[in-house]
Design goal:
Blueprint lengths: L3 H4 L4 E4 L6 E9 L3 H8 E2 L15 E9 L2 E11 L10 E8 L1 H13 L3 E2 L4 H8 L5 H12 L3 H11 L2 H25 L10 H30 L1 E7 L5 H9 L17 E7 L2 E7 L9 H16 L2 E7 L5 H13 L6 E7 L6 H7 L5 E3 L8 H12 L14 H22 L4 H19 L5 H8 L7
Parallel strand pairs: 1-7, 8-10, 8-11, 11-12, 12-13
Antiparallel strand pairs: 1-2, 2-6, 3-4, 4-5, 5-6, 9-10
Helix pairs in contact: 5-6, 7-8, 7-15, 8-14, 14-15
Length: 467
């Protein structure tokens, strides 16, 4: 865990590339002693000291890393002098051969000559503390490293470019101005003067609330793109749930049988639909049963249903009436988590008489399919995607992916709404100022203007070592 109070004065070192054998490995140094350390272990081929601390920043130098007379490796050393570096400190990167032994020996040598091991995310934490990026950008670094498709890459890049900060910072500063004016009014309460224009303040609060709400609305989409979407396949026994799972995956993942109750446990697998990861979970058929094992399976089905973002409720169109479907849906709807989507899937349809079923269930929004014949499966996939991706991502909009950021935005919005209500009711400036200060505090935490050690530790400890 990062020790903020004690480690910031140290020079840190870590392997910046994945551990294991590869063509090259990159070892990163950051801190006041970086140049002194590299000067002490970096030599020419003749083992003469190769002092690069007096060289121009952002240059690359060839030489040898050696421990006394023992040559460890031929390397390239990249030199980056403060303050124009990733961390804002002197930074040195050593590109060596990808041998695990070589990488370890160089790290040991760095630690012997004054460096200490870097904690997860410590390079980026130093970049944040030295003003090279705000907290929302720092969080985006981790997301960018972990991005696995085009959409997660687009979102991470726009956050890294500081779009969250750009959207929030100007409004935050204006709120600070009005809060200070309200505070000033309290000092002149006996004179009954107003320094803060109420109409302008009301307009600013409405603008800020609207912006925050747009960012909060983006969180559902952003979080799904970042972390994936859980989809529970629910229904009575023998309606084709396992067949549907296999059709969606394009693989025989689940056992398919005419015997009811074949699936006893949750079977799951993932597919990528146009850049979004969907995790499908085939569950045991829901029914009353005396079989103890099947009872456990039914209970797991309900647990899966309660945790899923999307529920595919599958029913057999040939043996279910509209009235029966209405009754079957009731216990399912009661267990849905907030903002979860319920999709009714009418299976085992003969597409030659599809219109007949549409007429029978005319008051229901149902996706008709034949999982066995793979009919309308692609249409169902597109429907699932449309529930998550409500707007086309171009890379220009701001999308929130962090639950931590969404929580702070929600706090700010609630405080601003309280302040706005106070303005309408003409309450004392003292109370309005307090609500504004709480909103400003939440927005300040979002960008890292104010932050606790515990918060920073929690965020940066999730990074990989070397970043």
């Amino acid at each position: 865990m990062i020790n903020i109070s004690s480690q910031l004065s140290e020079t840190i070192a870590a392997l910046a590339t994945p551990s294991g054998i590869g063509a090259i490995g990159v070892i990163r140094l950051s801190g006041d002693k970086s140049l002194k350390i590299i000067d002490s272990i970096f030599f020419t081929k003749a083992l003469k000291p190769k002092t690069i601390s007096n060289k121009t920043s952002h240059t690359i130098h060839f030489g040898i890393i050696a421990q006394k007379e023992a040559i460890i490796d031929e390397v390239l050393v990249s030199l980056f002098k403060a303050p124009n570096t990733y961390t804002g400190e002197d930074v040195v990167e050593i590109s060596c051969h990808g041998s695990v032994f070589i990488q370890q020996k160089i790290l040991e040598l760095l630690f012997e000559t004054g460096a200490v091991p870097a904690s997860p995310g410590e390079f980026t934490m130093r970049a944040f503390l030295n003003g090279k990026m705000d907290l929302s950008q720092a969080e985006a670094v981790s997301d960018l490293i972990l991005s696995s498709n085009k959409k997660t890459h687009q979102i991470s890049m726009q956050q890294l470019r500081g779009q969250v900060k750009t959207n929030i910072e100007t409004l935050r500063e204006q709120l600070i101005h009005f809060a200070s004016m309200l505070e000033l009014e309290l000092d002149f309460s006996e004179e009954d003067v107003e320094f803060a224009n109420r109409d302008e303040l009301k307009k600013l609060m409405n603008t800020t609330i609207e912006l925050i709400q747009n960012l909060l609305n983006s969180f559902t989409q952003g979080n799904a793109i970042k972390n994936g979407v859980s989809v529970a396949i629910i229904g009575n026994p023998n309606v084709g749930k396992s067949t549907l799972l296999n059709a969606l995956l394009g693989d025989d993942k689940a056992i398919v049988s005419d015997i009811a109750g074949t699936t006893r446990d949750v079977i799951e697998d993932c597919i990528n639909i146009e850049g979004v990861q969907f995790r499908f979970m085939d569950t045991a058929g829901i029914r009353a049963t005396t079989d103890e094992i099947e009872k456990i399976g039914v209970q797991k089905s309900y647990q899966t249903l309660e945790q899923a973002h999307i529920i595919l409720y599958v029913f057999d169109v040939n043996s279910t009436t509209p009235a029966q479907l209405d009754e079957l849906k009731k216990p399912i709807k009661q267990r849905l988590q907030t903002n979860a989507h319920l999709v009714l899937v009418g299976n085992k349809i003969d597409f030659d008489i599809k219109q007949h079923f549409k007429s029978a269930f005319k008051n229901q929004n149902i996706q008709f399919i034949s999982a066995k014949n793979n009919d309308a499966i692609e249409i169902l996939k597109k429907q699932l995607l449309s529930l998550i991706i409500t707007n086309e991502i171009t890379g220009n909009e701001t999308i929130i992916t962090s639950a931590h950021q969404a929580n702070l935005l929600a706090k700010a919005a609630n405080n601003l709404k309280e302040a706005s209500t106070g303005l309408d009711k003409q309450v004392s400036s003292e109370f309005i100022a307090q609500d504004l200060k709480l909103a400003i505090q939440a927005l300040s935490e979002l960008t890292g203007k104010i932050s606790s050690d515990d918060l920073l530790k929690n965020i940066f400890s999730k990074f990989c070592i070397g970043k």
